[in-house]
Amino acid sequence: MNANKLSLFKSLGPGLLFASAAIGVSHLVQSKRAMAKSTELLLNQKSKSYYVIWISILSLGTIVILTFFNTSMITFVKIATILSFLTAPFYAISNFILISGKHTLKKHHPSKPLKTISFLGIIFLIGFSIWYLITLLLVV
């Protein structure tokens, strides 16, 4: 590596590390809070234990992933891809229920054409997840 590139990495390094840490930390903090609030809204019950439950689930999941799959980055990426494809329909359905429900002002509810597009998108996500699982099982 030439001196100019090394100098560039040295000057950008601390800033990139700080930015990565800031983004990562905010995501780690907010995802549990968002999932706890979503659970409250979906179950129509308020409980402080939802936050603790989501902290536990995410922490255990992270520990399992890092403990068992830290030797192979390919396995780690495969797991992340599988989880992304399989959780996307759940998040889409949850989001649709929340944005169309009583907790959102009527003026902010999606219009009929947007609901149609949402339904088609959810069907696509479910279909794609099923297709992905089938191809995954056939390849293995």
Oligomeric composition of the shown chains: single chain
How far is it from the N-terminal to the C-terminal residue, by CA? 40 Å
Instruction: Give the overall shape.
Output: extended
Query: What is the number of helical segments per DSSP (H or I, 4+ residues)?
Result: 4
The topology string of helices and strands comes to HHHH
Q: Report the biggest beta sheet as strand number plus sense, adding barrel if it closes.
A: none
| Count of strand segments | 0
Measured as a percent range, the helix fraction is over 70%
Computed CA radius of gyration, to the nearest angstrom: 20 Å
Give unreliable regions as ranges: none
- Residue fraction in strands: under 5%
- SSE-based structural type: mainly alpha
Mean pLDDT: 79
Account of the 3D structure:
This protein is mostly helical. It has a domain of 69 residues. The mean pLDDT is 79.
Element layout with pairings:
Elements: H1 3-43, H2 49-69, H3 73-100, H4 112-139
For this entry, give a set of tags:
mainly alpha; 4 helices; 140 residues; 0% strand
Q: Short summary of the structure?
A:
This protein has 140 residues and is an all-alpha fold. Helix content is 84%, strand content 0%.
